[in-house]
Amino acid sequence: MRLFPIMHHFQFALIAIALYLSATGLIAWRLVRRGQSPSPSRPLALWLILAGLCMHGWLLYDSIFRAPGINLGFFNALVLTSWTVIALFSVSSLTKPVENLGLVLLPVAALTLLLEASFPSPDFMRQAVGWDIKIHVLISMLAYSLLTLASVQAILLAIQDRHLRQRRPAGFIRALPPLQTMESMLFEMIGTGFALLTLALLSGFAFLEDMFAQHLVHKTLLSTLAWLMFGGLLIGRLRYGWRGKTAIVWTLSGFAVLILAYFGSKMVLELILHR
Question: How far apart are CA 123 and CA 143, in angstroms?
Fold first, then answer.
């Protein structure tokens, strides 16, 4: 059973949403006040994100890991992915200039919390599962989340490149790191995400009985296709120096296939076919 009654769960979700949106507002205000005084404190935004992340994690545990099994229904999976994305974003922002990604990531995380609290997911994988399956799920979510960060980075890189080519960078674009730094960060994310996706596929073949069973075959094939696309991008970067528009297109295409592999199939099964 849930740790909180459903109504309390919704109220806690609203608190987490308010923390994320407050942090988003502070980040936006810092951009507007860039170079001016007074400017809102960066640590304050990070503390708000951390508080939201803790509340988000508690709600996550209440929704997914209650009882012996794992409830990875569609909206629960979205909440798990968004929590992992925000956690990775928070850690990265301590050492890299990625704070502005929060303008996109934090409202999306807030939206996933609202959807999960409003539409509780049906039971899924409720039977007790072993440590091997849990490891596979964890690695898969880390891979999806890191490649989600990479896709957001690719979108920002595309916007930045377009504005610079037109010689009219707006305030938001001027606040981003240099184009070369943005590109280097993108490939760091893709390289790490690709390694995690490789481990996710290997652990799936090792721990699951049949990766080509009827309910898994589409996920396996699409995940493998995404793996080939990200691998091809990394090879192209090393051998041919791919960058700019080519890197952006390959990143977003691979991410779209990866999203279809997991969330597309879950959406069809749960929200349309009600299975």
Answer: 24
